[in-house]
Amino acid sequence: xxxxxxxxxxxTLPRNILGLQHSITLDVLFPNRTGEExxxxxxxxxxxxxxxxxxxxxxxxxxxxxTATGQSLRLIRDLYAAEGSNERSVPILYDKQSRRIVSNExxxxxxxxxxxxAALGSALSNAERPNxxxxxxxxxxxxxxxxxxxxxxxxxxAYKAGFSSDQVIYAQAFKMYFATLDQLDDLxxxxxxxxxxxxxxxxxxxxxxxxxxxxxxxYVRMKLNGGRILDYPYLWHWMCRVYALDGxxxxxxxxxxxxxxxxxx
Length: 265
Known about the structure:
The protein has about 260 residues and is an all-alpha fold. It has a domain at about 135-260: Glutathione S-transferase Yfyf (Class Pi), Chain A, domain 2, CATH 1.20.1050. It is built from eight helices and two strands. The chain has helices at about 5-15, 75-80, 105-115, 135-165, 165-190, 200-220, 235-245, 255-260, and strands at about 95, 100-105. The chain has a two-stranded antiparallel sheet. Strand 1 (about 95) and strand 2 (about 100-105) form a beta hairpin. Helix 4 packs antiparallel against helix 5 and helix 5 (about 165-190) packs across helix 7 (about 235-245).
């Protein structure tokens, strides 16, 4: 996992919230990918626990070596290559027993961890452990609707705005992003603690990583300077409420986040 990456954050969150920290190990990449000078080439996710971060002048204590394969691989690319794939992305859910990649799609991994959390060794009892995707058909439909909206307008929308070289695409993404923030703030104004009501669900989980990065990162880096989350009173209170849930704070890293977006490797 890369603790600066919002798609990885979508996986570290359920791992912690569902009580799976001790049964599912976590290998942590250096926040910056390889540069032009690297013998393997640029833009590759790397394990570099001894590498100093520019922001701190010292190695980041969360960074680890690769332990999933038992081979201490340096690059995520090499983990995929062992299975004949040219893929290079994270997150990765890896099965140490079968020595295979289970999934590299964060949305699917969230569902897997939620559905099989007890069998995977959750430290929480059934009564303590939240269900991120409850069985109620009407609630599931509401979660799916929010998932689609949040992905298109917020999760992916931030990247469309930040990395587009086309002014029209940027303007459309910018408009949709902030219109959706307005919609979410209005939704939460009725006093509900979470997006679909009283319980924290997958919809909240998928929204949080992007909004967690908005004020300190995306406001500048993604040119999303139409407002801060702090300016949306109900969304801001929702952010604080989610951050206070057990396991949420330790699922991310402020230093990794800033090193990844603003620091030099």
